[in-house]
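FW: tagging you since you asked about this chain on Friday. Here's the raw sequence from the shared folder, copied in full. Didn't touch anything.
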Amino acid sequence: MVGIKPPGSWPVRGCSTGSGLPAAEAELGAASALTGGIILCTCMAMLVGVCVAGWIAAIHRARSTADLAALAAAGAHARGQKSCAAGKVSARANGGELVSCRVEGGGDEFRVTVEVRSLITPAITPGPRWVHAKAIAGNLTQD
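HL: got it, structure written out here
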């Protein structure tokens, strides 16, 4: 292997680092800063994704809780029991809180309207903490 020079002694044309080092040795660490920036951006994107997923899950949980609370209240009303109390128990059992409950009509034709709220997790400090949802159950036709 006559005439082959080791990699560190290769001439670098057109690259001047000002430090007296070859350009390949002077730029050690530039990729580390770039990698750090990419990792930071990836972590921030993941954090935003987790927060958005939490909001979407809270919206679905509130809607499901409202539906179940309205059905429980309507079932209790059909059996002659306290409808709003049954809706409150159902909302609490499903991770929500009953905000309002209204029964319209009577006898065989009635409509129960409930509103529940569900906590947003993970909570974002400057944003809202609760998601509200409304549901209607019963057989009374709307006006």
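FW: The longest strand covers residues 96-106.
HL: agreed, and Helices lie at 23-26, 30-78, 83-93.
FW: great, closing this out.
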